Every structure is written in structure tokens, then in C-alpha cells.
Amino acid sequence: xxxxxxxxxxxxxxxxxxxxxxxxxxxxxxVIAERSGTDRHDVALVLGSGWGQTGDRIGETLxxxxxxxxPGFAKAAVAGHSGTMRSVAIGDTGRRALVFGxxxxxxxxxxxxxxxxxxxxxxxxxxxxxxxxxxxxxLNRAWGPGTPVLIRDHINLTAHSPIEGPNFVDLxxxxxxxxxxxxxxxxxxxxxGVYVQFTGPHYETPAEVxxxxxxxxxxxxxxxxxxxxxxxxxxxxVLGISLVTNLAAGIxxxxxxxxxxxxxxxxxxxxxxxxxxxxxxxx
Length: 283
Known about the structure:
GO terms for molecular function: purine-nucleoside phosphorylase activity. Keywords: Glycosyltransferase, Transferase. By secondary structure, the protein is an alpha/beta fold. The protein has a single domain (about 5-280), classed as Rossmann fold, CATH 3.40.50. Helix content is about 30%, strand content about 20%. It has 9 helices and 9 strands. It has helices spanning about 20-35, 55-60, 110-115, 115-125, 175-185, 205-215, 225-235, 260-265, 270-280, and strands at about 45, 60-65, 85-90, 95-100, 130-140, 145-155, 190-195, 220, 235-245. Strands 5-8-7-6-9 form a 5-stranded mixed beta barrel, surrounded by 4 helices. α1 crosses α4.
């Protein structure tokens, strides 16, 4: 591979405790700026299961970059995710969205720094707002597969934080009320709930789902909370949206499968893509 195609050369490993993760994020942002032809992006989106068509609906893709060509990133590890990031024009506003087609999940074992690297890169690229999406299990029977739900708060059951050292970040209004209101202006039927992150990669047991319900959860999944915390640390405004792809274990008597998640996501792709494109245009 040529020197031009090896941007990670000389960049410290995120897993090395001596590495400054923000330095790696700045290096990644520099590569994105070079490949996209712009020094600044305005809004970032992390697309989970079911949200893949969103980038196409926001506007014209001006640059597409293979994750593996950007420091600190790797190829997609989960079916239904795209291993590229895109620089997308937000309509004719002159603004740009940085769209990540995949995320690093906690259960991949690469460490929390890798999980939140996209968020820190987005902040280094100039983004002041980030939209975090996911596919999840629902605890409310009224939310059938294919229902988007705004995240109003979360419960982090990973027993980890992306914040290192005595940096006491306030999470009181982590999921922006302003952005949730904007989303409801686009789709008045949007409901909201509390997202609970388990470690995965196995699905939750019925007893664990009932525990999540008792402690105040409405949605269960394997992502998002660590990214949201890192975004708040970076000073970004956060909008979280879950796509209910199935009823959680024990809520329905049907067995869970990743194929079901992908099928529900594909069925809801038009609604989800249109919703997020309209929200991004108004931010």
C-alpha cells in the first residue's frame, strides 16, 4: 500500500494506555478533511441497524471513505452495517454531515476508547451536534417492530465510562430536549423512553429485561450510552433515536435473532431515513 493510502502509519494505538485518544481523533479528522475536501463538518450521525438509508436522504454524498483508511477505525464487524464513512451535503445549506455507517461495539473487546473514537473524531472534525441511532429491543408492547423512539435518558450497565481521570461531566440533560422537540416537529407521533445498554453480544434474558423495566428502562440494546457520554464530554449536543426491531426477551414469546433485527430495519428504512434527513436539515 502506498504512503498516501496508509494514514495510520505513525499513529499510536488506541489500546495503548500511553496513547492520547484525542490525538488519534485529531489525526483521523485530518484524514477526513483531506479526503472530503472540507476542513469542517457540522453534524455527525452514527447509523445503527435499520438506519442505513439515512445518508442517502440527507443530500449528495460528496466523499466516501473506507473506515480502514482512517486512523483508529476498522472495518464493520456486524452484518447490516457499512464499513465506510461519508461526507454528505445537507441539502443546499452549504453545511456537511459526517455519516458513520457502522460503530465499534463494546462487545468486540477493543476497549472503550475504540467504542467512542467516532464521536471524538466527529468533534475534532468540527461537529457540534451528533445523532446516535441504534436498533433495539422494546419493552412497550405498543412499540411494534419498526417503531422509532426518541431516547430521553439512558442507563449504562457496561460498568465502564469513556471518561478517564477526575473529569466530572454532568449528564443531567445528556439527550438534548431541544433536539427531541425538533424531531417531534418533524414526526409528531414520536414517543420517547429510557435506553438501557447491556454489554452483549448475547441477547438479554427475560429476567434481565424485567430488571431493566423495574429500574426504569423502556428499550434495551448493546450500544449508544458510552458514545453519548463521550459526546457530552466533547461539548456536543446529542440526539438519540432507537429503532425497535423486536420486542425484548420475555415481552414476546418469539425467539430473538439478528436476522429479525435486519428485517425490521429494512421494513422501516424509508420512515427512519426520511425522519432523520428532515431532522438534520432543521438542526
